[in-house]
Design brief:
- There is one protein chain.
- By secondary structure, the protein is α/β, with parallel strands linked by helices.
- Helix content is 42%, strand content 14%.
- The protein has 2 domains: 187 residues, 3-Layer(aba) Sandwich (Rossmann fold), CATH 3.40.50.1820; 55 residues, no CATH class.
- It has a 7-stranded mixed beta sheet, sandwiched between helices.
C-alpha cells in the first residue's frame, strides 16, 4: 500500500454562514464546481478544495484513494468543518459518503450528485474516432465556447455525447471554461489512483446505515459513467434520503440543466437538514 504525508489542499472559499463542503470529481477541481458554489455562496460558506493531484493541490508521487480522506481529515481541522453539509459530484460523492461515516455526528447532510456507494458503468468502448472528434471538439470549443457549428459537427460525435445529452451552448460553455482546464491540470498520479481503485471495486452499500443525516441524491437518466440505477440503489440503502432523476441528461447534468438542479438543492436545503437551516 502506497501512503504519503497529508497534503494541505488548495481551497476556494466563498460566502458566509453555515458551511457546505464541495468535493469535485475526476477530472475536476474546486473551480469546476462553480455551478454549485456560485449560488450556494449567496447564503452559505462554501469550501471547495482541489483534491490531491488535481489543479493546485500537487501530488509528489503515486498515492491511494484513501489518501484523499486523510487530506480531507486535515482540511476538516483547518477549516472547523463541524456541523457542515457535504456536496460531492461523482468521485466527490464517494468521498462525501466516506466522510459522513467518519464524522457521523458532525455531518448534517449530504448532497450526492451522479454518484453511488456501489458505482456501475455502462460506458461503451471508446474508438479512435471518438478520441479524434473529442480533441477537435474540445479545442474548437475552447476557442469559441458554445459555437453551434462545432457542437453539431464534432461535439455530438465526440465523447461529449456520453457525458451530456442536451448539447446546448450553455453546457458547452461549462465544458470550455471548467472541464477542459480541469482535465489539463489533473495529474497522472490522480488518474492512476482512481484506476487502481476501480479495478479493486468499491461497495459500501451495507455500511450506509451508519449515515443517518438527510441525503439528497441526484442522477441523470442517461448517465453511462455511474448509472442512475446504482444511484437509486444507494438511496434505498440510506436511512434518510430523497432521490431525483432527471430525464434526457447524463453524467454532467448539472451543466445541462443548472437552473433545475440549483432549484432542487435550494428546496431540499430549506426542508431537509433541520439542524442546518
Amino acid at each position: 500500500m502506497i501512503t504519503q504525508a497529508c497534503v494541505s489542499l488548495a481551497v476556494r472559499c466563498q460566502g458566509e454562514g453555515k458551511t457546505i463542503l464541495c468535493l469535485h470529481g475526476h477530472p475536476g477541481s474546486g473551480a469546476s464546481l462553480s455551478v454549485f458554489t456560485s449560488f450556494l455562496s449567496q447564503n452559505y460558506r462554501t469550501i471547495a478544495p482541489d483534491l490531491r493531484g488535481y489543479a493546485r493541490s500537487k501530488a509528489l508521487g503515486a498515492f491511494e484513494m484513501s489518501d484523499h480522506l486523510r487530506d480531507l481529515d486535515l482540511l476538516w481541522q483547518q477549516y472547523d468543518l463541524e456541523n457542515c453539509i457535504i456536496l460531492g459530484w461523482s468521485l466527490g460523492g464517494i468521498l462525501a459518503m466516506e466522510l459522513a461515516m467518519r464524522h457521523p455526528e458532525q455531518v448534517k447532510g449530504l448532497i450526492l450528485v451522479a454518484t453511488a456507494a456501489k458505482p456501475r458503468s455502462k460506458h461503451p468502448p471508446i474508438t479512435l474516432r471518438d478520441n479524434l472528434y473529442t480533441v477537435i471538439a474540445g479545442l474548437l470549443n475552447r476557442l469559441h465556447p458554445g459555437w453551434q457549428w462545432n457542437i453539431d459537427t464534432f461535439g455530438k460525435r465526440s465523447l461529449f455525447k456520453y457525458l451530456i445529452r442536451r448539447h446546448s451552448p450553455e453546457a458547452y460553455q461549462y465544458l470550455a471554461e471548467e472541464a477542459l482546464p480541469a482535465y489539463l491540470k489533473t495529474s497522472r498520479w490522480a488518474t492512476q489512483a482512481l484506476n487502481h481503485a476501480l479495478r479493486q471495486g468499491y461497495d459500501r452499500l451495507l455500511d450506509l446505515d451508519r449515515i443517518n443525516c438527510p441525503c439528497l441524491l441526484l442522477a441523470g437518466q442517461d448517465d453511462l459513467h455511474i448509472t442512475p440505477q446504482s444511484s437509486q440503489e444507494t438511496a434505498q440503502y440510506l436511512p434518510n434520503s430523497k432521490w431525483i432523476c432527471y430525464p434526457n441528461t447524463a453524467h454532467l447534468f448539472p451543466w445541462e440543466i443548472p437552473g433545475q438542479v440549483q432549484h432542487d438543492i435550494e428546496q431540499w436545503l430549506k426542508q431537509g437538514p433541520s439542524q442546518f437551516a
